[in-house]
From TrEMBL:
The gene is rpmI. This is Large ribosomal subunit protein bL35. It comes from Tautonia plasticadhaerens. One of its GO terms (molecular function) is structural constituent of ribosome. Signal peptide: none annotated. NCBIfam families: rpmI_bact. Keywords: Ribonucleoprotein, Ribosomal protein. Belongs to the bacterial ribosomal protein bL35 family. It holds the Pfam family Ribosomal_L35p. HAMAP family: Ribosomal_bL35. PANTHER family: 54S RIBOSOMAL PROTEIN BL35M, LARGE RIBOSOMAL SUBUNIT PROTEIN BL35M.
Amino acid sequence: MPSVKMKTHKGTKKRFKVTATGKVVHKRCGSSHLNSHMSGKRIRKLRKPVVLRNKAVAAKLRRAMQRREAGHGRFASALAAAALAHEAAEQGDQAEPAAE
């Protein structure tokens, strides 16, 4: 264990966001100025945030920001247990009419 706390990379924190499921989202480049020659469709597409596809880079950014890993959200295990219980209950309901 390091004796000193790791610090969040502030530049990364300002440019990227980690979603609840661990996806890394960022703003597209090329939309801040010199847009007069671009089509409206292109400008609208540049407005929307985009999910980072490269998983290795996304993992590195999550580590720099000290955020959750993919699929390991705060309540991931509780939600998984609840989903399994719900599925079991549904299967139990379906099995009863077939037995009658």
